[in-house]
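pipeline/complex-builder :: batch 7 item 3
reading input block
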Amino acid sequence: MADVIPLDEFVSDEWYPGFKPAYDHAPWMVDPVDTFKKKDEETFWFLDFHWPRGLTPMGWIWGEDGYNWGTQLAAETLPLPPGRGMTSRFAGTHLYGSAVPVTDPREIGARAKRIEKSLPLFLGNFEDIWATRRQETEDGWAYLRSVDLGKLSLAELGENLVQARAYHKRAFEIHFEVMYPLLANFVGFYGQCVEFGLDPGQIGKFLQGYDTKIMETDRELWRLTAQARSGGLADVFAATEAENLSAALSAHGGAASTWLSHFEDFLQIYGWRTEGSCDLALPSWIEDPTPALGTIKTFLLKPEVHDFKAALDAAIAEREEAVDAARSVLTREEQAVFDGGLESCRAANFPWWQDDHNYYIDLKVSLPMRWACQEIAGRVGADASDDMFFLFWPENMQLVRGERSYPDFKPIIEARKQYFDHWYQRRASMPKMLGTIPDSVDDPIVIEIFGLNGHFLDTIKAAASGQEVRTLTGIPASKGIARGIARVLSNADELHRIQPGEILVCESTSPNWTPAFAKIAACVCDGGGTLSHAAIVGREYGVPTVTAVGLATAIINDGDEIEVNGTTGTVTVFHTATAGSTEGAEPAATGGVPS
Amino acid sequence: MGRLSELLQAGVCVPAGFSVTIDAYRQHCAQSRLDAVIDTALAGLGDNPGPAPIEQASRTIRAEFEQRPISTALAKDITDAYDDLCLHCVEVNVPTAVRSSATGEDSDDASFAGIFDTYLGVSGPGRILDAVRACWGSLFTERALDYRHRRGISHHEMPIAVGVIELIHARASGVAFSIHPVTGKSDRIVIEGNWGWGEAVVQGLVTPDHIEIGKSDGRVLRYDVASKKIVSAFDYAAGRVVETDMPARLVDRRVLDDEQTAAVAEAVAAIEKHYGFPVDVEWVLDRHRRAGEPICIVQVRPVTAVKVSSPPPARWNPVSAATKYAFHRTT
């Protein structure tokens, strides 16, 4: 008997007041992004952790061009034998994902034949392919950065927005074109290792210890932290809230001015990133450096400097040790297969790419659309610079072509902002899954990236039936045991709230959360597999991490004392805080265990 | 027994001994009118007997086997052979292992391993004759009766031979497989061993040390030292090997060192090569064995319960791995 979580309340023809999903072109390969329809109850949907704030009307483009188009195009092109990529539905402003299966056995067989040729071709040329594609996105980026938006007419701004969208769309075509074969190869290697009897918890280590652009950014943040300390600025940081730091440092002058110029140099290289994936409603660090400054502020609270070289050396040593230990239990015949698989996965390293690509794609490619929208807002005399995010693409096109004017849209923009706020408040209580819950999930992306394994499904079902949950379990993603105060965060804006030694509890992390790993004692995520961001970074930083816990953010309250065992994958809640629980979080399903 | 003589020819170290043949068994059954006893007891069982009638039949038949004397001529032959063995081993009343060997036991379609009795430490002509009769009777244990009944095999199709072999003074013993007995992986040798004699291992009374060795390079892939609570040890008062509590200081101690492990693996590999099919063996490490000397093999059977699994691919193939593990398809 399949479990059904009803979605009646989200059934809607309308998305945001005054908009019914409609298309002026075919934006999908297989299944388009949409609002929920009753029929969708037959399908399994999971709340995607990437957009904890919800998406604005312009965010619909991400669904069209990225989530649906990007994954479906890549799944059809490679092709993935059993899958057609991902599709998405909106419940309010919150995006639910689902894997689209290929059901015809004959077609699956035909697709399997095609990938026999295409996968080795890709893997053999990965370095070249990724270099070429990366260059392509960087060229697009350089062009869009070079445009002086201030000199464009409103109509030309419209054309620029079209260009920015095309760049964004192309970036996600590349994203999934590269991701699927890398993931397929890694999951194949993982499966082979498990078949050989190797400990699954060790497999991630075989591929760790390779430097990424995101790690490079973190090193620079620590370098700036050291400079702030040596410049005697620690007190200024300690005494000032993150959002006021920019002004306070400017006012301070002297050493602070020198430091700020270093900081500005840093931003020009590493600051073109948003505090979240694929969302043009988010500012870059350049636009709002609060997250970077807030991170440095908390880094200063740690007496010792995070030694990246030592951490990387340790990760490399651990990698080599894990590989030697694994090889020692394999027969010579098995070693030959293992060595070949390891070499292949190192040359086309999915865990590495999974971090590295964010610098070039996820954290950056929405920015040109954002700039165009903000420039248009200024040009039409909008009340707020984010007003255009609350128009849909066709509406923005009407605006730039002069077919409609800003005052026409003012009431609807206001209504939609309220709609966004309303759904933002509801995020913590949104069901983690909707529709028909399967007994098992087969799609490797859904399992590895979103961590929707059998255990996750069981936890959801247990909670739905009112069972008590005190010790939570998930995937042991990074070994070690730590006990501390839980900080339950709903999005990256709050990262600076975490004090050194505390435990991060969240839906899931993305690359912009990485700096926090240098100060947290442990990490617990609702979602995420052994290849999720938190798992990879947890291993790199040696932070005990448990992913795919299911309801961690709902059951653990902000301020609870918890113990995380990253070796066994268990999280024990010792005490439920009586005050200061996370806004909107459901009360703990249990009274907690007295400490 | 037949296999042991073959192995001796093939250069494997096997203990000295003699065999009481199938013909001797058949002759005994006829002369002692045991055939009639058996037929009567089995006729009462009907088509689908429950455990109680089988137990009753087994008890009746075995009691008769143990009571009815062996003919003077056969008893003399066995006693003479035993005397020869004593002379060969230069020991009066040399202790022996008396093992049943049904003809079905070594066949490829049914594994009778462990169904029939083995008596360890039997010494003196009188006890040898008793043990031979008990072994014959073990063709009619409840387990054996039930086994044949379910498979529709007549006891006439499966006469029993009895091996009487010199008891090796075991420092350690166990079983070994030329393929993995569970997964069927043929690229490794699996050894299980315990202190003392092998009965506790064969009967599953103890969790033995578990060792896996790569067949092609002889490398130890894993050595799991088990907590071994029971040992088969010689009870001098009773004059036989009995199962008893393991002395505390041996419980967690590793049974085989690297050299001994390699010697067992080498013997198993040689035997598999000799026969050309996967085998399981019972091995004994003689208390007096010195490094470099071979390991004694006291029992050999073909592996029949597990299918040899397909070997790992010759080299890494990303497509077949992804197809199998990422896309959950078989090629």
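note: Chain A has three domains: 3-176+363-429, 213-308, 470-575.
queue -> next item
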